[in-house]
Write a structure and sequence with these properties.
11 helices, globular, homohexamer, 339 residues, seven-stranded mixed β-sheet, alpha/beta
Amino acid sequence: MTVLKAAIIGGGNIADKNHIPALKQLPEQVEVVAVCSRDLGKARTLADAHGIAHAFDSTTQLYQQCAPDVVVICTPNNLHYPQTMEALEHGCHVFCEKPPALNAQNAREMADLAAQKGRILAYNFQLRQTPEWQLFTRCKTDGLLGDMYHIKAHFLRRRGIPGWGYFTNKAMQGGGALMDLGVHVLDLALCALDYQVPDSVLGNTYDFIGKAGGKGLMGDWNPATFEVEDAAMAYLSFPGKASIMLSASFALNTQVDKDRNLELFGSKGGVKLFPFSLHTELAGELADVQFPYLEEVDIQLKNTAAFLAACAGKPSNVCTAEQGAILQEIIQRIYESAG
Amino acid sequence: MTVLKAAIIGGGNIADKNHIPALKQLPEQVEVVAVCSRDLGKARTLADAHGIAHAFDSTTQLYQQCAPDVVVICTPNNLHYPQTMEALEHGCHVFCEKPPALNAQNAREMADLAAQKGRILAYNFQLRQTPEWQLFTRCKTDGLLGDMYHIKAHFLRRRGIPGWGYFTNKAMQGGGALMDLGVHVLDLALCALDYQVPDSVLGNTYDFIGKAGGKGLMGDWNPATFEVEDAAMAYLSFPGKASIMLSASFALNTQVDKDRNLELFGSKGGVKLFPFSLHTELAGELADVQFPYLEEVDIQLKNTAAFLAACAGKPSNVCTAEQGAILQEIIQRIYESAG
Amino acid sequence: MTVLKAAIIGGGNIADKNHIPALKQLPEQVEVVAVCSRDLGKARTLADAHGIAHAFDSTTQLYQQCAPDVVVICTPNNLHYPQTMEALEHGCHVFCEKPPALNAQNAREMADLAAQKGRILAYNFQLRQTPEWQLFTRCKTDGLLGDMYHIKAHFLRRRGIPGWGYFTNKAMQGGGALMDLGVHVLDLALCALDYQVPDSVLGNTYDFIGKAGGKGLMGDWNPATFEVEDAAMAYLSFPGKASIMLSASFALNTQVDKDRNLELFGSKGGVKLFPFSLHTELAGELADVQFPYLEEVDIQLKNTAAFLAACAGKPSNVCTAEQGAILQEIIQRIYESAG
Amino acid sequence: MTVLKAAIIGGGNIADKNHIPALKQLPEQVEVVAVCSRDLGKARTLADAHGIAHAFDSTTQLYQQCAPDVVVICTPNNLHYPQTMEALEHGCHVFCEKPPALNAQNAREMADLAAQKGRILAYNFQLRQTPEWQLFTRCKTDGLLGDMYHIKAHFLRRRGIPGWGYFTNKAMQGGGALMDLGVHVLDLALCALDYQVPDSVLGNTYDFIGKAGGKGLMGDWNPATFEVEDAAMAYLSFPGKASIMLSASFALNTQVDKDRNLELFGSKGGVKLFPFSLHTELAGELADVQFPYLEEVDIQLKNTAAFLAACAGKPSNVCTAEQGAILQEIIQRIYESAG
Amino acid sequence: MTVLKAAIIGGGNIADKNHIPALKQLPEQVEVVAVCSRDLGKARTLADAHGIAHAFDSTTQLYQQCAPDVVVICTPNNLHYPQTMEALEHGCHVFCEKPPALNAQNAREMADLAAQKGRILAYNFQLRQTPEWQLFTRCKTDGLLGDMYHIKAHFLRRRGIPGWGYFTNKAMQGGGALMDLGVHVLDLALCALDYQVPDSVLGNTYDFIGKAGGKGLMGDWNPATFEVEDAAMAYLSFPGKASIMLSASFALNTQVDKDRNLELFGSKGGVKLFPFSLHTELAGELADVQFPYLEEVDIQLKNTAAFLAACAGKPSNVCTAEQGAILQEIIQRIYESAG
Amino acid sequence: MTVLKAAIIGGGNIADKNHIPALKQLPEQVEVVAVCSRDLGKARTLADAHGIAHAFDSTTQLYQQCAPDVVVICTPNNLHYPQTMEALEHGCHVFCEKPPALNAQNAREMADLAAQKGRILAYNFQLRQTPEWQLFTRCKTDGLLGDMYHIKAHFLRRRGIPGWGYFTNKAMQGGGALMDLGVHVLDLALCALDYQVPDSVLGNTYDFIGKAGGKGLMGDWNPATFEVEDAAMAYLSFPGKASIMLSASFALNTQVDKDRNLELFGSKGGVKLFPFSLHTELAGELADVQFPYLEEVDIQLKNTAAFLAACAGKPSNVCTAEQGAILQEIIQRIYESAG
């Protein structure tokens, strides 16, 4: 098996803690050859910390000097589109952080170019690799759930507006709680419905708390520069009548600090994802099933491996370019509905 | 104070256990003078059991012989409209069971006729009288919640398709879980938003489990004659951007047997209704407030008293004819959206 | 359907609270025509309390005057044998309280005579009618458990030596905790193994606490007249290698006041009976299944109905004469092993 | 005090993590001078890791070059016998891992040779050093328990067939769950009965799950090479009527992942060992006693110290050669009973 | 045994629900012959309800016509003194409700007159009959506690100012929370210290909440007529250095609705009374002992029986006249300390 | 801002783990220049470990060679007075460990000299910096509590007599549980009452367990040399009628191992400190408020910073010299009351 050469674009935390460590654990498939960041010092430090040969502050140099097979994009949201397009143009496979892009049009172009170039473009939705999601998939495949017809998905924080980074900057992030948190559970919900495109989308966004300020549980934020939504609610209706209720918040006056979950209802059984429980009929009685021994896994490692499997033409459950385009379009329709 | 003469139309359980006992506890305001049912024997038995003078099987006779001031309508949903119209035409105040009618047009006509006749028409949504709802109202009035902008309301049963009555008969009930259960929590949610009319409504209805059959927790139902929805999901968006997520089910593969609750989110505080908890900031910190000594009350008695207060021209929190018309219109829009 | 005429022999609590009320709820199948007790006053009082026509203090008179179709025997253990034999001789079906008899020889004769006379002889092991046991049976039938190979069965009390009746009198009871309590769970365990006869039996009995005296939780007992075992432990090994561990106590220095349970282990799944839980593999993972909506039933009513079904030649899960003989033989082998 | 010279035979985990660290913490009594393993590299690595002078792959060389006073045997079960015999022949004290041997005959010879040579042979049953067992012993000595007459002992795993080592190899291990797990709790149960020899032994062994395969919680095992019992059940009856119920499993369809416990019943009090609770009468009432401040101890260190105390002729609670022979005989009788 | 003739003085709840039912259950010792109340109708009603022959509204008539042997005084606190003195003058035994009197001087005179007349005067502190207090006494007697040296006693309500009766009227009650609630736990604490007289008493009383008004949990009270303390705190120091911390409240901003408990510390063991737990050393370890099977008893029945035992010259644990005088003196010293 | 030069007197644990690390985290305000201990080696080791320049075994040398601005006193209680006086005489600010001194007279002199010299003298009561106490202060300031009138404060250990140090030596410590533990919660209680001087003090001390010996949970202590109180109980009454109940123990037969808490009752609200809960009325109902997101802080760091703020003339909540003198006087009055 050929060992692919990988380059990392972006010198922040997600590169340092997630992508590089995962890639380093798969030496038979991939070798990280370069890190590229606008801040050369940051790139250098990161490269040194992980024993990576090259550091750049220009992607032009990167492509000239290293000719990577694979590019991993770990930059702010507004850079996903241009950097992915550039990488595809250089014939690279691309593993891009979520969300795909700032808008539907960009995500569509990215998918189209990947198809045209015959390269893998994938997005890093790691929750697909949780043992809970794997078990849901197995239950669905084994026929324990019947037809899936309704999903409640939420990713809520009570006062979790990040006090660092660009999370409240609209131009760089494209949005707030929906763009940063909601996409994770929306991706799973869409998987459960085989990534259909919804007929109708209705939603609202809010910024009462973000703009008013208050006690922060993830650092202090500045209400004066808060430009995104602190909460987004939406309803999606699909061709076969299936539906999704989606809730995402950075800040909401709810009891729980952080709450991320999905409930997935099928004609024969329903699942609550975290912790996993199955509700169905067994032996003629209503039954609740627990699976107490699900093993914790390194979800980033598994998702990186899934991306590499796709690159190698093997079966993979990574989020595809096409799925990313559909997801981004739905996000856009929610924002448009919210006005 | 004049003692009003009241007549009961409908000889079933709701008359026997709810309305008549409540009216009997308010003798200074009202006297029950007659019971009317299609089945004269039933009417007679009920009247005797409660010491009521007259029993009829014809409303014509009822109005001729008793000239009631107040009519309480406890019949199946399809009779609410004709019987209310008849009572209003006879100049009576009307206390009608929920839902108001089978469709929006009927409920609108009922409200218009009540206005024209200068009579009180009210609907029996008793949850408004729970101590939890009263406390929510007090918190809202005292400014503890700020602007209300999102409400999650649900009334879910796992396998609670009633094995008796007409609950699965579409012609008589007009619908299933939404019509029977969803209306209760929708009424509260609408109250929290000052009973605005939504801009947009999106929803779906399902009948997988109802039509497939299975283990029943409220008696056995017949899947072959199951004509209504076993679950309904909807999203309402209001002019000022507020939103409601509504879920109702007779049958759903969820863990909990019966689950009825509302979460109401405002800019300064949020409330979970059952059991009541308030989530806000106090003394500069995030605070969760419990009220452990809420007193249980007889919600039917309080709602009947509220209706009579309205009849006497006093302040009342009973569901008005106008509110009933708005509610019924929303129900209809949900069904239309669901197709 | 013919209505059978039933006579009750024995005027104690078990007749008054269990058998007569159950029989009275099945008027289309059976009519209680007489009560017979050594104490005529007791018989009379009982008959009057339940609206039963006849009372006797002699079974001879009973058979002469009433010619019952069915006899229910609710007397002390030492009378089960002679009264059952007499009833069978009179051509009656017999529903006899547990345990079958004082020894294996008697129980064998009872079964043989019933077979010879073509009459139903059954024993009142009501735990067979619990919803938990019914669900176990359904799980076993549906193949969820595989081959059953080990059962732990216990019925333990910490200080539950009854302070009334003949429970500590060896001549009348034939034994102590094993005879009174152990038989219930042993019967279920044997059912799970299709009522095979064990190859080997090893057991012990104790009377330390019974003979020493102390604090009683079911009244005060007299250590000076304590003649039976306060605890019995046994192990049964069956032809196909299956095994049962059996524990029964009136008194044992354990934490729990009263503890009655079975754990039943099969090759594919295991069950803990109270509260019912199933432990197996599902969707490739170890799964624990709860059934939260088992309905409480009147187990005496169901067992009486099962006996009557047997009398009517219908399928029945009541404990048969043959099973009772096997059970009694095992009890005897345990006592013999204990020495 | 003379410092004894100790040699370790066996280069696996138990030597590395248990015995050597314990010995190193007792430098005034013992010095580890050598490690011996069939794999010299392993011996060398282990010796270096712990700062031990010599490493061998031959016991002959070991005895020639080092002349140890003490030998600690940490090899697979089938080597316990020959290596212990050899060590005793060389005049060494021997601290041998459990179980003593593959069969009763070998364990008996080992005890006899130790007695003949006047050397200490002891087995490493560390549970004797748990604070719970120490407290049980103190309660028994203080008369809080009276006469001990029944013990329930179990060591159960749900799917704990080890996926490494020789645990499923009959020739090397001599057995499965009973040999590996059951011996620990059996040793304690026998201590509670003063290590009497039972009159009767009845037992069964099973391998349904081991041979069928499935989800493993301690790694994956190979059902094709599974040769031992995955579960063993036994009942022991003793001269004074006392009894032990013993259960051990690598795999059983039970709820709990790992469950190791003993309940010990005496005439005056009973004990549940983990967590320790005492059930008795106090001040004329039934009392449950908790001891919430038992201190955690290093049970291997304490057991090693107990072995060295025995070597020094001091009082010791370590498992003696004679006890090991009795234990091994009982194990053999269980296997013979199981057929 | 002579059956004593008893008269009840006071026609309220405590007579109706406590004293008369208890006396009626002891027919071999006592017969209730009369009820006396200022309100003759009330006396008549009560007498009829319980099948008592005579009813009076004058104690003069009572003594003339009935010549009772025993008088039970169930009137407001301010009547305890005159009515007890009158009864003793008539040669009656007296069972008087708590507290003994409005002040120390009266209670002392009552005790002196009882001694002079050779009659039993006892006070109805029923908590002495709880199984918890009986067990404490047994533990103390059995030496499990050593020397008692400190007691924390409290009887706290959060908003339990009674909305009925005279509880907030100083002239009739003599005080508030201390007089009504505190006396119960103070009596037990004094028993534990053998009813010594304290050297020093320091205390405070408060009425912030009582005078401010607010939400009531035992009905609504009128802050305008609130004359007593809503909370009292005190510390008592005894000759042998023992001490009591006493807290009583009708209203206090604490979490618990109603909280009544004692902690009693001795040199060898300590007891928390409700639920009973013993904290000591056993088998060389710190031990917590629970007694899970204490039997509920009818504490009024037992206390009435204890009073009658005293009348019959038998051992009794009822609160004596002398103890009542000591208690009342302490109460007075607390109020004086509080100023 | 000038960086102050600080010297540490005392070479024990409190210097090493608390004061020096805190000072090192505030380099812009303070530099630690010297450590002084009777044991020069200890001083040297400590200085080296923390990178401090100088080490002394004589304060004379310290003042001569280093001329510190700030002195931190971490020595046994009996040295607090002489070393503080010496430091003040040298014109230093002093941060002294608790308790202030061995008696009231010394603490008074210390405060007077600090005032005379115009230097800050402060005591290290770090609990003032807990987020719970800060929140209490905020609640009090925001008017949520009304007038404070009663406080229950305790710091209890079950068997926590330290097995190391001088804790049981009266001459060096001045007392036992009150001096070591009680002072912490007494300081908070006094703060809540604005550090008033009490009118009356009543208390007792005990040494039953300390002198008897037994199981220790913080090492083993020697009962033969136990000279201090193992428990102290006291009641303080203040001019405005407010009161404090104080309990402190090294050893007490109570259930909990370690229990430190305050309950603070005000006219409008009450607070339980650990974990913090507020009990009050809100929206017309009794309300319990939890604050689930209080952030853990480094209380020593915050208290050191508060001391330095005081030195810099800024607002500070550190315990002042005057407060320390009041506290010490109260301690002395408790001991005098106890006799």
